[in-house]
Amino acid sequence: MNTVTKVISTATSTASKLSVPILYNAKVAGQIAKNVYVREGMAPPSAAQIESAKDATLKFIWDARSINTWKNISSTQYMKAGLVAAEAYAFFMVGEIIGRRSLIGYNVESADSHQEHH
């Protein structure tokens, strides 16, 4: 029980030491985001903009069903679409690596070690 108390005490002490810098950095990040928001003239989309985006998306989906739409796309546009897809895949892979906390694979027990538990 004494060890648990020490661990809890250490964790509490560490958390209290880190809380001030974390709060400070969060406030700084909030102020930077606010300044960017104001300087760039950003604003939430209006109802008309949302409706316009919805209509454009539905038109894109409807047009994508037609074979003529795909025939009229240039090879440059296909290359750009491929690059965007590769970029999205790269960001996905970086997120996977960060999530796994490992460059290669997940830390999974082998089937042999699993059999030992049964």
From TrEMBL:
GO cellular component assignments: mitochondrial membrane; proton-transporting ATP synthase complex
Keyword Membrane: yes
GO molecular function: proton transmembrane transporter activity
A Gene Ontology BP annotation from the UniProt entry: proton motive force-driven ATP synthesis
Keyword Transmembrane: no
A matching Pfam family: ATP-synt_G
Alphabetical keyword list: ATP synthesis, CF(0), Hydrogen ion transport, Ion transport, Membrane, Mitochondrion, Transport
Subcellular location: Mitochondrion membrane
Domain of life: Eukaryota
Record family assignment: Belongs to the ATPase g subunit family.
Protein's name according to its UniProt entry: Uncharacterized protein
